[in-house]
Predict the 3D structure of the following.
Amino acid sequence: MIEQVELRPVRLADVDALAELYASERAFLAPFDPIRPDEFYTAEGQRIEVEHALAQRAAGLRYRFVIEADGELVGTLGIGNVVGSVFQSGNLGYFVARAANGRGVATRAVGLAAEQAFGPLGMHRLEAGTLVDNVASQRVLEKNGFERIGLARAYLRIAGAWRDHILFQRVAE
């Protein structure tokens, strides 16, 4: 069992560890991710990704975090498509390395993300979508107070095909 899970903002110093993580988890993530260029799995590709995420964070449009379990980087979490004004909403997405699955890491990380979103980030609503057959991720969301709101047909292009997703939301208390 994992003793400590931390969620912290991504930083440029993470690019090598992120490249290693994504490269080692590439086959595991393939059924859940969009098709990505080979460069994405390199340190240079991750440097570009992190620089982009940092610029979006500064603009209040996206918040990218790394997930650490017992001091080891085991995943990432993002709150993207952030809309302010009267909406105050964002979309949540995350992944945890295969070896850390089933140990409560994703559940704790999503809980920490909700604390950030509804606290310092001042959001009113978080939305998340899972592939219809991704029951484990659905449980993570439900354990964190997300409610199922419906089926979105052909919602995201995953592994080269438009895939249906079950949508969830959590509204600030």
User: Anything to note?
Assistant: Residues 86 and 124 are 9 Å apart (CA to CA). The mean pLDDT is 96. The longest helix spans residues 43-58. Helices lie at 15-24, 26-29, 43-58, 105-118, 135-143.
